[in-house]
Records
---
Amino acid sequence: MTQEPPTTTEGPLLEVTDLQKYFPVKSSGVIRRTIGQVQAVDGVTFSIGAGQSLGLVGESGCGKTTTGRVITRLYDPTAGSMKFEGHEIGHLSKKEMHPYRRDIQLIFQDPYSSLNPRHTVGSIVGTPLLVHNAVPKNQVVDRVQGLLETVGLNPEHFNRYPSEFSGGQRQRIGIARALALNPKLIVADEPVSALDVSIQAQVINLLQDLQQKFGIAFLFIAHDLAIVRHFCPEVAVMYLGKIVEIGDRSSIYETPHHPYTQALLSAAPDVKQAVVGGRRERIRLEGDVPSPVNPPSGCRFRTRCWKAQAICAEQEPPLLEVGGRQVACHFAEPLQVVSSLVAESESEAPSLQDLSESGDAPVQVS
Ligand SMILES: Nc1ncnc2c1ncn2[C@@H]1O[C@H](COP(=O)(O)OP(=O)(O)O)[C@@H](O)[C@H]1O
Ligand code: SF4
Ligand SMILES: [Mg+2]
């Protein structure tokens, strides 16, 4: 059997501090010089306790996938610290990282490209067991069949190829592969966004069952706020490489303080109405996320923010404790969100069924 990583019982399972990931931009031509940096992740700090789930939300291009890939060490961090059970893993060599790979697994967004079409399901799910010498060779088939059963697939289908399965079934194969080594942390990168809406709830419910059954911690990445709220008691909102607001589910969804969180919530289908002050207006987020090669000075959200003032271009707002959560805005203030679903208690997150049945009335600010 392979060497177990050292364990510690105190402190968070994963502690990420000032994490940074830049990708070099190269010039064209024979001599390819570095002419800039894609600041994909730029100073991200959060922690996840054992068995806990943190949701990471933001529009496409905000750096969510890059964050997940650095944590699983598919990418090396440019700077910052990543501690797993108290041990710094950000700069471990491939060999030193090997024992931790058992504990930290990734579920990919696209179940079509993430499974090798030339390998059988048995080989896909069984490979991690063999690579990590996790079970004796003569027990691999039994273990694979057990895993297929756990994720709701027919254990007899271990000799079939990915092309013989639907999208939802393929994602279950990806989940079985992620579970094979009994991980302590799973980074689930938009695990249902490539699936039909009718299948999404089934896969989310499976992940939630597995989390409860095996006590696995999740970094759950999504652009869909409804899905994150269903799954995660803690939520971090990311914009252009930075976390702009992070807190517990009720703080984020009931009284979002950052204009970007407020705008994202206004686009969520379950939110009926948001009320603050005496005026009513619709929050509409204009334009796209700016380029992370040359992000706006000061607050990165300022080019799309309706509250921006001169200071926003001059000073980057620090992430500070305001109203029971952390928020990075010079003018942070609550927006009271009134929704048919927000009223539910924190312990009883709305079901996806509820979410899909709710209307899509515009958010209003009064
Ligand atoms: N390998 C890479 N090389 C260069 N730029 C990248 C690479 N991967 C991602 N990026 C850029 O980093 C930014 C963040 O991307 P990503 O992490 O995929 O965001 P998200 O998952 O939130 O959509 C984007 O501008 C993207 O184009
Ligand atoms: S700091 Fe300024 S630009 Fe940034 S979110 Fe707050 S008000 Fe908007
Ligand atoms: Mg992504």
---
Amino acid sequence: MMQIHIPTPLRPYSGKQPVVDVAAHTVAEALTALITQFPDLRKHLYTEQGKLRAFVNVYLNDEDVRYIDQKENAPVKDSDSISIIPSIAGGLPTTSAPSPATALTPEEMSRYSRHLILPEVGEAGQLKLKAARVLCIGAGGLGAPLTMYLAAAGVGTLGIVDFDVVEASNLHRQVIHGTSDVGRPKLDSAEDSLKAINPNVKIVKFETRLTSENAMQIFKDFDIIADGTDNFPTRYLVNDACVLSDKPNVYASIFRFEGQASVFGAAGGPCYRCLYPEPPPPGLVPSCAEGGVLGILPGLLGIVQATEVIKLILGEGEPLVGRLLLVDTLAMRFRELKLHKNPECPSCGAQPTVTSLIDYEQFCGLPSKSTPPAEMLNGIPQMQVEDLKRRMDAAEDLFLLDVREPYEFAIAQLGGHLIPLNDLPQRVRELDASREIIVHCKMGGRSQIAAEFLAQNGFKRVHNLAGGITAWSEKVDPNVPKY
Ligand SMILES: [Zn+2]
């Protein structure tokens, strides 16, 4: 019996075995024995015409069989081993592969010299990096280290999608932007930093929100997508667009002190929806803007993403496919969970129901960007900050309830009565159910939960302040600090 080594992306079709034993006299016989034993492998290795697929390379010991005498008919001994090396393990779909760069300039030779002396990179690997086209969604906390290290490493083309401007509150983590960049578009600031790191890199800027309408068009010219977004609609949009366009999705997300990372949408591997078919209801999982984030955390996770992107381009190492890396920075503990491809996944399963991009705002239970603000949410009237201002100015009898934490109250407040959301059940008796109560928090998520709680407990005149104190500082009084 001789051994055939199965690459990670194809192991789902080999009963998860990394090595399969077969009896054979030639390379071709060995491969036939393999697909006889594991019929699901056939379509991954062969075209309908029965030819080995263009992106599958077969090695006999350390030689590519295309370069040995007799090619696939070469004889094999029991002590030999065959390795299947699909270029898809490198993550680059050959259908849209760019024309490879043929040589490095002398300047590049010295710039990348520490890469060139690594056997796993070498000149061939550096040329792959130069030819690679990576799209980063977001130039924020994750996007900063991600794009900076990819630029430094010599990734030839970096696309960035972002429509924000730099704010002071970004600077504690988004190290691609500096203090003097506050107020500038993030894309321009990022481009300046990346060009300063490596002028050889081509930066392609998409100053837009990623939407169902533009995602496929933007993705089409890139090989790998790196998702650095902080909201569920975009995360599902990126996932589905990656699955539909057959591109790997290098994913990370962060919250407070914890992060997670994986590679979704790679051949044979699971996608984000295999893990979470549907998003949590709005308000259940606060965003970083509400929950806070340790400034270093996106640095750590963005670099994990960059590492996975580089590995996919080089086709080296074991990508985070089918594995969810969990990082807990307080304990400084890294754990790993196995992820399984869900055969019934709505996006990447055998019978996908997501066959085109949908309205992801609606899917995530959020009001669509194009529709006017909702007047009611789960039975709670939504008050706009302008209305609250008018009614306060008219000295109407309102009770303003602030459900944020005391440390937030210390930063900025609207004169409300402070009962943090978690204390509300114990302190509900402090409230007068006969009065009209307007509940607010930072952005409107926690206050919605509080308002629903009050409504369930007999309070009939409860409103949620849409957008919270943040909307107040943006639309009514900029002197109220934004944090
Ligand atoms: Zn899936």
